[in-house]
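Human: For the file, kindly provide a plain-text protein record giving the amino acid sequence and the backbone structure tokens, at your earliest convenience.
Assistant:
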Amino acid sequence: MAENNKLETISNLFEGKEIRSVWDVEKEEYYFNITDVIKALTDSPDPSHYWRTLKYRMIKEGNQTVTNCDTFKFKSKDGKMRNADVLDTKGILRLIESVPSSKAEPFKLWLAQMGSDRIDEVFDPEIAIRRAINYYRNKGYSDRWIEARLKGILDRNKLTDVWKENGINENFEFAVLTNEIYKTWSGMKASEYKNYKGLRKESLRDNMSDIEVALTDLGEIATRELAKKHKPYGLKENKKVAKAGGEVAKTARDNLEQKLGETIISSNNNLNYQYLEENKKLESKNRS
């Protein structure tokens, strides 16, 4: 985890019981205090002992959840900072599956339903498309915006297909190239842009203005066409083309801002909530 983690308490889960968590800025992932989760799901008088026993059993069974366990220092009731095991969202959901508690049953049923829904979408992809459309409608987006958003997703896939043809296969490589486009036209990497808008796991494009979306699309479409034309191979060469594509969007941005007399980069988002943060430093990390 990065040193500029953000520590916070979530109180609207597990029947209102507080679950301390830390937001990893670099990984863009939440890590939850395992003892807090155990305390919320069981009637154990000693959640720490319960977790140690469960952890030992899971290690013995070869459960990979424990392997991915980190350690973070939280303030205890006596005011001292003490190490506590934490897991990311996926790990916590797997942990819940391992806890024999009636309080965990609603979560287990929810996970089963989610799995069933995703399997249905494999056989009928239109279900996933309808789900996305309904999600955006429920968020208040217009059908015109939704149509443009879906087209943008298709255009993005066309770009990644070209990158794959040009020797790009690893996720970090796609991230590097995407950041090159963003940073060239906006001055910020995608993660920095999200932070500027007060976002975490939320989609950046879903929280952009129409002008910001248009410039993002322009940068990616320009990169795609340049890559198809010049056929760069490997990360180094594709990075040069991504920068060139971003420069096309940067030129458009500069021209518009010159005429407007103001920046088009906005910190506004479409969230109906905001994060209340307390900056904390990661004291230690453990991969057991």
